[in-house]
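Tokens in:
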């Protein structure tokens, strides 16, 4: 079995036999997940290596099934679950695997995609987002509608009029308020049994990059903490067409991002070592 693969240096399509493709030489680094925790005043560390075999298996499944639904064949025909969109205009995305142990001592593999998958926040078999999807929709849909309406009204108003600046100011306030409310919906659970919203973690709300909490690592750790699973290893890789800035290539492992995950992984990983001692 061979796979078409886009060369990171020349962007040419190349064919790789699947058996060779995921050897360790293709991974850029095997650095563990390590983040400073202000609660403990130290770094919490989760290795990558124990999750790499499962991550390579997931790559093989993505390449073979060409969709992200491996279990319920009934939904196989759902267009939004196919992987072809990862090779189009929207390009690829990050996927992640968390290798853990359940309270009964059984091995468990959790998997996640970053952000939404073709507009879907939830797909069976994949770690859910950090918020309740229904609550999120109830909050955002009417608010976004109001923000759009204000924008349209401003467009229809004379350029330098007072009314226009009032409308734009109102729109800005509503957007900022909506972001705050969204951050209140993101609930982070850690291995110390603590639960906190993004808004509580960053009370002034400013400087939280868009998409914070939507990467694979936070989704996986949050889900494992809620389930009482003990994480043993976490690996994140890119799948699909190389990103625009050419910093992400299919089949490569990457460390957690600094801007969005850096500020929250310390909290999410907290309690990990104690949990390892308990089990
Ligand atoms: Zn991230
Ligand atoms: Zn800690």
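Residues out:
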């Amino acid at each position: 079995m061979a796979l078409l693969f886009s060369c990171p240096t020349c962007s040419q399509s190349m064919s790789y036999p699947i058996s060779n493709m995921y050897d360790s030489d293709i991974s850029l680094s095997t650095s563990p997940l390590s983040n400073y925790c202000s609660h403990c005043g130290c770094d919490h560390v989760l290795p990558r290596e124990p999750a790499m075999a499962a991550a390579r298996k997931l790559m093989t499944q993505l390449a073979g099934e060409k969709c992200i639904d491996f279990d319920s064949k009934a939904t196989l025909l759902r267009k939004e679950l196919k992987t072809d969109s990862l090779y189009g205009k929207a390009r690829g995305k990050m996927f992640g695997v968390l290798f853990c142990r359940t309270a009964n001592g059984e091995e468990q593999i959790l998997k996640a995609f970053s952000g939404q998958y073709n507009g879907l926040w939830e797909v069976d078999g994949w770690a859910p987002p950090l918020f309740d999807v229904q609550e999120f929709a109830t909050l955002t849909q009417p608010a976004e509608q109001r923000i759009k309406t204000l924008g349209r009204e401003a467009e229809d108003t004379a350029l330098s009029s007072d009314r226009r600046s009032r409308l734009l100011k109102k729109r800005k306030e509503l957007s900022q308020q909506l972001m705050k409310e969204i951050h209140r919906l993101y609930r982070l659970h850690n291995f110390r049994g603590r639960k906190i919203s993004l808004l509580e973690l960053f009370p002034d709300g400013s400087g939280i990059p868009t998409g914070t909490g939507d990467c694979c690592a936070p989704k996986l750790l949050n889900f494992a903490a809620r389930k009482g699973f003990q994480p043993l290893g976490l690996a994140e890789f890119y799948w699909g067409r190389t990103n625009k800035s050419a910093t992400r290539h299919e089949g490569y492992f990457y460390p957690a991002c600094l801007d969005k995950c850096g500020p929250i992984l310390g909290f999410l990983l907290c309690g990990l070592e104690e949990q390892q001692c308990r089990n």
